[in-house]
Design goal:
Blueprint (H helix, E strand, L loop, with lengths): L4 E6 L4 E8 L6 E8 L4 E5 L32 E5 L18 E6 L30 E7 L6 E5 L5 E6 L5 E4 L11 E4 L37 H12 L9 H5 L12 H8 L25 H7 L9 H12 L24 H11 L35 H20 L12 H26 L6 H12 L1
Helix pairs in contact: 1-5, 6-7
Length: 472
C-alpha cells in the first residue's frame, strides 16, 4: 500500500499541514503532520481508532481573496470557448483546417419515473434507443476559426455536449460527457480531449475567436430529434421502392417505416445489420477521431458512392450524417403511451405477443434486445405483410387469429399514438409527473428572480402547513 497525502493547508511558503497515511501494516489510518519543502515530516496528532483529515490551525489569519461570481440568476445565456480544437488526445489524422464547425447538442433531462429495464439495453425504461440511453436536440453550429479557436454563446441550464464537424458537417470527433453553463458564466478548455494535466500552450497571439464577439448558434433551436419525423421521410422518398417487404433488395436491408412493437422496420434492420458505426453509451474509452459516426458508417459509404444513381440533396445527406453522429437515436420522447406493455412502447400486451408467438413460431421476447439476429417481424401499418405470418399462410384459422392480433395493435396505435407518431400523449400517470416537474420549475424561476432582484420569496405551501399545525 502506498503512502497517501491529503488536504494540504499552507502555513507559509515552506510549511504545510497535511493528512498522511500511517500504520500501513496494521491497516491504513490518517494522521496530521507538519511538512516542509525539503520533505521533512513531524507527526502532530494521531487517533488510536479514527483517521484525521482537513488540518486547519485555530488562529487568526488573513481572509483569502474571493473570486467574484459571474453567475446571474436570470435566463441569460452563458459562454464557452475552446483555445484550439486540434490540441488534445485522440485527434490523430485530424489536419489543421479540416474542422469547420462545432455542433452544440442538448441531451434533455428525463422528467418522468422509470419502470424496470426493458431488456433492450441498459436500464432505460421505456425503450428509447438501441446503443444510446437518451434523446437529443441539435441547438445549432458555430464556426471554427483558422487557428482552431471557438467562442460562442450557449443557452444556460441545459445539459450540452459538443461535436467537431468537417466541411460536409460530418462528425470528426465528439464529446461523450456533458457540461452545463450558468447564466452569465464563461467556461472553456484548451482543446478537444486534452490531457487534464496539460496547460494552455504558450502563444503571443490572442486566439482569433476570442478577439471577436462570441458567435451565436447559426440554426434556430430544432425539436428533439425524431427518427420517424426527421429521417424516415428520406428513405420513403428514395429507397422504399426497392427496399420493401417481399422485394429482393428488401431481403438485403429493409428501409420501410412500418412500426413494430419496439421501433420501426428500417431502424431495426440498419442496426442489426450494423450499417452505422455508433458507440452509444459505451465503450468507456475515448475513441479516436473518425473511428465512429458518419465517417465510419457503411450506410454513408453506399450512398456517397452513388448507389443506383440515387441523388440526395445536401439537406438530406446532412440529416443522415446528423442521425448517425447522434448515435443512431430513435424516440424523441422519454414518456410512454403504453407503460405496462413490452418496452413501454408496444400496443400489444405481453399476453398478446406470447399468443402471437405460439401461433407463428416466433419468440418475440428476445426481439427487444439489441443483439437480436431476426429482422422486423410485425408491421402495424400493413399487418398482412408482417414477416412472422409467412410460415403460417396455409394455416387458415391460425393465420387469421395471428393477423387479428396484429390488427389490434394497428387499431390501438390509431386511437392512442405512441411517441414516434404525431399526436402522441403520455399516459395519465406520466402527465401528472410532468405537471409536477413544471410546477417545481416555476418555483425555481421565482426563486432565481428573487435572488437577482435582492428580494425574499417565501414557500407558501410550507407556511400554510406550519399555520395549520399551529391551529391543531
Amino acid at each position: 500500500m502506498k503512502v497517501r497525502y491529503e488536504d494540504p493547508f499552507p502555513l507559509s511558503e515552506k510549511h504545510f499541514l497535511v493528512s498522511k497515511s500511517i500504520n500501513l501494516k496494521e491497516g491504513e489510518k490518517m494522521g496530521i503532520y507538519l511538512l516542509d519543502m525539503e520533505g521533512n515530516e513531524t507527526l502532530l496528532y494521531k487517533d488510536k481508532k479514527l483517521s484525521c483529515f482537513d488540518p486547519m490551525p485555530l488562529a487568526p489569519r488573513f481572509r483569502p481573496r474571493e473570486i467574484p461570481t459571474a453567475r446571474k440568476f436570470d435566463e441569460s445565456p452563458g459562454y464557452f470557448y475552446v483555445q484550439n480544437v486540434y490540441v488534445g488526445t485522440h485527434m490523430e489524422n485530424v489536419l489543421p483546417g479540416s474542422v469547420k464547425y462545432l455542433r452544440v447538442v442538448e441531451s434533455p433531462e428525463k422528467r418522468t419515473y422509470t419502470q424496470a429495464s426493458w431488456n433492450g439495453q441498459g436500464q432505460q425504461a421505456p425503450g428509447v434507443n438501441w446503443h444510446s440511453f437518451e434523446n437529443k436536440r441539435v441547438l445549432g453550429t458555430v464556426p471554427v476559426e483558422e487557428d482552431g479557436s471557438v467562442y460562442f454563446e450557449a443557452p444556460s441550464g441545459k445539459y450540452l455536449y459538443f461535436q467537431l464537424l468537417d466541411e460536409k458537417k460530418k462528425m470528426v470527433q465528439s464529446m461523450r460527457s456533458g457540461v452545463i453553463v450558468h447564466p452569465g458564466e464563461t467556461n472553456g478548455c484548451i482543446g478537444c480531449h486534452e490531457d487534464r494535466l496539460s496547460v494552455p500552450p504558450v502563444s503571443t497571439k490572442m486566439p482569433i475567436a476570442m478577439s471577436k464577439k462570441p458567435n451565436k448558434l447559426t440554426e434556430t433551436e430544432s425539436p428533439i430529434f425524431s427518427y420517424t419525423r426527421d429521417l424516415q421521410p428520406v428513405f420513403d422518398k428514395h429507397c422504399i421502392e426497392c427496399h420493401d417487404f417481399d422485394k429482393e433488395a428488401g431481403e438485403k436491408i429493409l428501409l420501410v417505416g412500418d412500426r413494430n412493437p419496439y421501433f420501426n422496420a428500417s431502424y431495426i434492420d440498419i442496426q442489426i445489420k450494423k450499417q452505422i458505426a455508433s458507440v452509444g453509451g459505451g465503450p468507456a474509452e475515448i475513441q479516436q477521431a473518425y473511428s465512429w459516426g458518419a465517417h465510419a458508417s457503411n450506410l454513408v459509404k453506399v450512398i456517397e458512392n452513388g448507389h443506383h444513381n440515387i441523388s440526395l440533396s445536401k439537406e438530406e445527406m446532412e440529416g443522415i450524417y446528423t442521425w448517425i453522429d447522434l448515435n443512431g437515436i430513435y424516440y424523441p420522447e422519454y414518456e410512454s403511451a403504453y407503460p405496462n406493455n413490452p418496452a413501454g412502447r408496444s400496443p400489444l400486451t405481453y399476453e398478446e405477443l406470447k399468443k402471437l408467438g405460439e401461433l407463428t413460431g416466433v419468440n418475440f421476447n428476445p426481439l427487444a434486445d439489441h443483439n437480436r439476429k431476426l429482422g422486423p417481424q410485425i408491421s402495424f401499418e400493413r399487418p398482412e405483410l408482417s414477416p412472422c405470418l409467412k410460415n403460417i399462410q396455409m394455416d387458415g384459422a391460425g393465420y387469421l387469429e395471428a393477423l387479428e392480433i396484429i390488427i389490434k395493435g394497428e387499431q390501438r396505435l390509431a386511437q392512442n399514438p405512441r411517441a414516434d407518431m404525431e399526436d402522441f400523449e403520455p399516459c395519465e400517470e406520466q402527465q401528472i409527473q410532468l405537471k409536477k416537474y413544471m410546477d417545481r420549475l416555476e418555483v425555481e424561476k421565482e426563486n432565481n428572480k428573487a435572488v437577482s432582484e435582492g428580494k425574499l420569496v417565501y414557500d407558501k405551501k410550507a407556511i400554510s402547513q406550519t399555520l395549520n399545525r399551529e391551529k391543531e
